[in-house]
Amino acid sequence: MIVPFDKLKATAKKAFLNLGLSEEQAETCAHIHASSSADGVESHGMNRIPRFAEYVGKGWVNVNGRPELIRAKGAAENYDGHLGIGITNALFCAERAMKLAEVHGIGLVALKNTTHWMRGGTYAWKIAESGYIGISWINTESCMPMWGSDEKSVGNNPFCIAIPREDGQIVVDMAMSQYAYGKLGVYRLAGKKLPYPGGFDKDGKLTDDPGAIEDSMRILPTGYWKGSSLAIALDLAAAAISNGLCGSDMDANNNGSCTGCSQIFIAIDPYMFGEKSDIQSMLNRRVAIADSAHPIDPKHPVKCPGESTISRRKKSLSEGVNVDDSIWEQVCALADGKTLSGRIE
Amino acid sequence: MIVPFDKLKATAKKAFLNLGLSEEQAETCAHIHASSSADGVESHGMNRIPRFAEYVGKGWVNVNGRPELIRAKGAAENYDGHLGIGITNALFCAERAMKLAEVHGIGLVALKNTTHWMRGGTYAWKIAESGYIGISWINTESCMPMWGSDEKSVGNNPFCIAIPREDGQIVVDMAMSQYAYGKLGVYRLAGKKLPYPGGFDKDGKLTDDPGAIEDSMRILPTGYWKGSSLAIALDLAAAAISNGLCGSDMDANNNGSCTGCSQIFIAIDPYMFGEKSDIQSMLNRRVAIADSAHPIDPKHPVKCPGESTISRRKKSLSEGVNVDDSIWEQVCALADGKTLSGRIE
User: Fold this and answer.
1) Which of A243, A316, B214, B302 is the one with CA 20 to 30 A from A122?
2) In A, which residues are within 8 Å of B174 by CB distance?
3) Under a CB-based contact definition with an 8 Å cutoff, are residues B21 and B63 in contact?
């Protein structure tokens, strides 16, 4: 169904207040979850609120946890997230990275012991909207086979990079799997094949049949061996820099998705070596040339990453946000102070 | 043919001296080109020496160019490479990034107006071998269609990340195309299909026929839209941070591969927030678990990125390095003070 953004956010906020979040936390989380859905990332927007409620109930997310500064060195800081709310922990660290970049040109914040940050791109978008180049990544529990293996052995460890462009931020938010499990379900329920092969079936054949991949649990790393290699490297780097858990530590704890994970936030001042007007003009020139590349299908012009999201956001804000009926029902129930029973989506 | 490493390096060094490089430059470049071949990256090792000679001859590489500090801010520095030798410019900047990281925890060096750095992974390997986490990338001229386009419109902009592990560095060195053009040629000449689709044929069909992709020039971004998005973002970020050329500026100049390009070098102190012994033990634990993931084929155990390179290096150093016959002939000719005529490989 379609729900106006303000109603979506207000309902989510009530749900979060009922889960024990403070006024400020609830306001922030409601805004981020509603905004992710408005941007078209429903899987990590409103859809995640029931699971967040479940995690709070199980004690996997501690709504009283706050990021604590553990150590600092020059342009870098290390925080313990105390299993607090993933969104507010990560936003805090993104802000700190920008403060450090303001002084040092580049700033790095390494957050350990935090929880699911929901839509990965949130923080790179925020950094770009604040005028900095943002790079961030996370390690997750294992959900994807390493290249050459047939069992899940590495996280899909999303990597994000964002460039502040006043005419529209350029943002990449990419998991290391070709498709998320959520996406496989969407195609299967619609009776459709995937646009491109997304994993292996039980016989080890590359397939575009979403159900066969859900059965085998052998989702495909993006770019085959490349996504697998980058995924394990991002895991190791996040755990090393933050002095936090690596993916296999999370597997051993088995406390749900991303509980106790490590996250890295890097902000870079894009104007420290060039004039802002020159840099912005270069960005606009490059994006315009990329977008004018000859399209395969004239009805689908080439777009740089982030541009379609901005169009989608505008549409959602004026016409309402698409929300899955069952999710909306659950969020409304939480807003009414009810607890969810049965399987959490 | 197989050539002992020392002979390979000595011959390359003579060739570089004949091209006008200083003793120190020739020593460094010979070591890097020979080492890349020893590591199995022949395409960007010995194979590139004839093209380097061509670029020096055309004035696209200025052997007298040296990196010049343009501006600095805190943990970040900006250099103009003055179209000097790509390898020595990049090594200098990687060293500077580590010096900055020593003081500030993280260091960033943005290099503009430089030339082809040959094997991208060289600098991340170097940073990891020196005990830092390394991240580096470059923008190149357009050689790959953006996703949704059928004409080359973005570079394959290699991205590298390396983690220092005393039991073997973990290094990812990935171009944003699924296969390099050089690799397509290797498969075509061997009469083989690619292991996985690597581009589109002239009719727009995804294909594993290397010759069909060479004809269409529609190489595939790794992970389809993902590699395309990351490629344009890396281009914009490199040009913005370094205040240098973006990919389309290089296209307009049309001075060969990577001439005038922008490069980013980031070094991070991996032990600033944790004890070195704890971090190394976590890395070893995680890598061991990844490597023990159940293999599809027991003869091909899972390996983390970099591990196979180290095995290959050991073998090359003890048994000799594989070099293409024609390339070896050309490098020997350059070492004898001859000039190359005809088509440069």
Assistant:
1) A243
2) 223, 226, 229-230
3) yes
Partner-chain contact A243 B71, CB within 8 Å? no
Alpha carbons A61 and A57: distance in angstroms, whole number:
8
Give which of A156, A180, A160 is closest to A171, Cα–Cα.
A160
Amino acid at A132: Y
User: Tens digits of per-residue pLDDT, A208-251?
Assistant: 999 999 999 999 999 999 999 999 999 999 999 999 999 999 99
Please indicate whether, in this complex, the C-beta atoms of B302 and A110 are within 8 angstroms of each other: no
- Cα separations (Å) of B264 from A179, A257, B73, B158, B234? 29, 33, 15, 11, 10
The ipTM, to two decimals, is 0.97
Q: Indicate which of A160, A220, A242, A272 best probes the interface with B, i.e. most B CBs within 10 Å of its own CB.
A: A272
Output the CA angle A210-A261-A199, nearest 5 degrees. Answer: 15
Output the pTM of the full model.
0.97
Count residue pairs from A and B with Cβ separation < 8 A. Answer: 273
Give A89 to chain B, closest Cα distance, Å: 18
Q: Name the DSSP class of A133.
A: E
E runs forming strands in A46-158: 68-73, 76-80, 106-114, 133-138, 144-145, 152-154
Inter-axis angle of helices B49-58 and B325-335, nearest 10 = 50
Do B74 and A105 lie within an 8 Å CB cutoff? yes
Q: Are A232 and B304 contacting, i.e. CB atoms less than 8 angstroms apart?
A: yes
Residue contact A301–B148, C-beta within 8 A: yes
